[in-house]
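Sequence, please.
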């Protein structure tokens, strides 16, 4: 099983990024998926969820700025992030909602 995130970068406040999570080793199209984030010294913070039936939910802190989507044919989960703020700085990881699998993450830094 592998979950490989990419797309993290250093970006200025107000900027945008799109994160990708390429999955292999399990039936991606049958799994509800989350994006979570972590800053040093703290636990993982839940960011967004995409259910297999298409429903999406977001943490209040990112609602209206972040958008989760998936391409089942490509086994890829996405997180489009807009109007980024310094407090969005973290390592972002994708994981299955059931907690079975999580990737290593990609660093997002928002700073001027």
């Amino acid at each position: 099983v592998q979950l490989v995130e990419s797309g993290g970068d250093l970006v200025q406040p107000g900027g945008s990024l799109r994160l990708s999570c390429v999955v292999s080793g399990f039936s991606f199209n049958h799994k509800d998926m989350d994006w979570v984030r972590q800053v040093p010294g703290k636990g993982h913070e839940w960011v967004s969820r995409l259910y297999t039936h298409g429903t999406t939910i977001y943490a209040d802190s990112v609602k209206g700025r972040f958008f989760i989507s998936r391409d089942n044919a490509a086994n890829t989960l996405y997180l489009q992030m807009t109007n980024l703020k310094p407090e969005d700085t973290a390592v972002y990881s994708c994981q299955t909602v059931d907690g079975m699998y999580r990737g290593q993450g990609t660093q997002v830094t928002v700073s001027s």
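The CA atoms of residues 37 and 92 lie 4 Å apart.
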